[in-house]
Amino acid sequence: MTHKKLCLKLPSSSEPLPGVLVLKLGSNVVLGCRGSVSVDGVPLGNATNETYQKSDSGAYSKAKGDTTVTDYYEDYDYEDERSRVTRGIKKRTRWTLNGRQLHSGVERGGILRRPHLSWADAGNYSCYRGERLISTFRISVGVPPERPTVYCYKKFHTSKVRCDWTSKNPVTPRPLCYLLLSRESESFGNVTRVPCSFSRSRCWCAFHVEEGDKALHVAKLCVSNTAGNATSPYLNFNLHDIIKPDPPTQVVVRTVEGQEHMLKVSWSYPSSWKHDFYTLHFQLRYRPQLAEQVKWDVLIDDRMSWTIYDALPHAQYEVQLQAKDEFDGIWSDWTDTVYAVSWTGNKIHAKISVQRIRGSKQILSRFGASLGVYENIIYSVCIGESV
């Protein structure tokens, strides 16, 4: 089973216009006045009737175009009737870009070099011998898509399947994205093409599959723009394996009064999860903010709160949660970090002075025992001073 032939570029606004030479940003281009083209040292033949695009394999593909080369000779004999002297007159070659004459890059033999193609190099190129137009080229500069890696998931058992891919680099011009979807048990003639949206370097699409469908699905993402096209590797999945809930919501971390080592965490189900029918399990992780390499993970069943008993006193903690269906699927993303400081209370500093008298040790012992019930007071006792 193969999607290869089905991932060809579709006729759309992402297709190059006829006669357009679509080249990658940074390419080294050499144009000949008679229509020859070389890109990165590779001759592409005569551009008179071809359009070139770069595919994800690195090769240039051709399509019919309408780049013009006139029927004109580089040198010709000119007869001066007065002197009856025949002289070979060589016309000077000049190049223009969008009507403005180019001076840099023009070489002998009518060659134009454009090294390290930039956005400013896009446009209409024309080559003249004297005042006579010899050829025209239209160059479009773009960034072809990198090879995508598609990822599919469901937020809930009955929700749509969502597939997406985010490019590591900008894709210019805006590409066309679509997903090819089939079942492993079907012949590959039964392929569904799912249109995708694209924005900010991300392709995404959604489609409905009946709940309880146990078939193995096969997906492949195709991405194409005027600079090239690319296809993802196959992605095989069963619906119950790709259930990925949204993260928990309303995460709150509270201190416990009088308990320096305790933090109480509570949370809620994500709104996209119907927990009347299906249950989520949770995982909690926490650590002191300054201890970057230390984390504690706790697996929690269907409870909606958890108490941490081993927090460090007076330390700020980072707390996060994630969720997963109790039987199937994969863990959600982690929630945003919630910060909390373990209980400190309000310390009272009291200075107690006791005169050095007989039996002072016993007095201090009894006095300290009576004051010790007040856990939040720090005592400083000075013996031999007047009160």
Structure notes:
It is a single-pass type I membrane protein. One of its GO terms (molecular function) is cytokine receptor activity. Residues 247-347 form the Fibronectin type-III domain. Keywords: Disulfide bond, Glycoprotein, Immunoglobulin domain, Membrane, Receptor, Signal, Transmembrane, Transmembrane helix. This is Interleukin 6 receptor. This protein has 387 residues and is mostly beta strands. The chain folds into four domains: 15-142, Immunoglobulin-like (Sandwich); 151-241, Immunoglobulin-like; 249-341, Immunoglobulins (Immunoglobulin-like); 348-383. It is 3% helix and 48% strand. It is built from one helix and 32 strands. The protein has one helix at residues 360-371; strands spanning 20-24, 29-32, 36-39, 42-46, 50-55, 60-64, 75-80, 85-90, 93-97, 100-102, 106-107, 111-114, 123-129, 132-142, 151-154, 161-166, 176-183, 192-195, 197-199, 202-207, 217-225, 228-231, 235-237, 249-256, 259-268, 280-288, 296-300, 305-308, 316-325, 338-341, 348-354, 377-383. Strands 5, 6, 17, 18, 21, 22 and 23 form a seven-stranded mixed beta sheet that branches. Strands 1-14-13-9-10 form a five-stranded mixed beta sheet, with no helix packed on it. A hairpin with a 2-residue loop joins β13 (123-129) and β14 (132-142). The longest helix is centred in the last third of the chain and has 12 residues, at 360-371. It is elongated, with a radius of gyration of 37 Å. The N and C termini lie far apart (95 Å).
